[in-house]
Amino acid sequence: MPDDADWPVYSLAHDVRVEVGRRDAPPLAPEVEARVDALWDAARDARPTLFNGRVFSADAIAPDLITGHWTEFRRVFAQMRDPGLVGALNLRPLAVVGVLQAPEGIVVGQRAADAIYQPGRWQACPAGSVESRDGDDTVDLHAQLLAEADEELGLDATAVRVGRPLVGVEHPGTRIVDLAFMLHTALPIPEIEARWKARANREYAALRALVPTSDQHATLTPPTQRFLAALRVVAQGG
User: Fold this and answer.
1) Quick check: 117 pLDDT over 80?
2) Rg (the chain; Cα; Å)
3) CATH of the domain at 192
């Protein structure tokens, strides 16, 4: 795990948007393709439910505009498993994260022990890759976030409201870029937990609420620590 100080933070404008530049991922050298195939095949043997969907990779990030292209999840997975492939794959996979404000505080989920990435740590939720849904080539960040809230927590668009963007945080090594948005619900934690359990989503082992004080929470993922810091700035009028 990289030092927690090594996680780049990107400012986001209120109206940040995503545009698709080049439509297709570039071809890979044969030896890189073979390495990607080997990592993906091994992962599928262990977890047959893994799906090679289309996910978005950022080529350029500015506060008001993110441009990039669609690529295969298996390439993203290979870069996560083997950071030595960063030079050849050159991916910055985009993800959306909701900093979910419930009456009791900010909802965080403990990543499952068998999670592909950062198992056991607590993170803001819902969260997920920006992916092509129903073959759509456009990217609607709010729609992506609402879909994750429904899939992971059982919170549909009548139960949550998307607020302003906070910050983007890039993961060292994997180069995943999390785009955090405020997410609001009037539902109390017990109701959120009940809906999450009814969804039977195994992304998280548990949920809890915390108050975003200035204290650092060692069990939180580094991006979540930065999201909470940004939230405190917003609360202070920033």
Assistant:
1) no
2) 17
3) 3.90.79.10
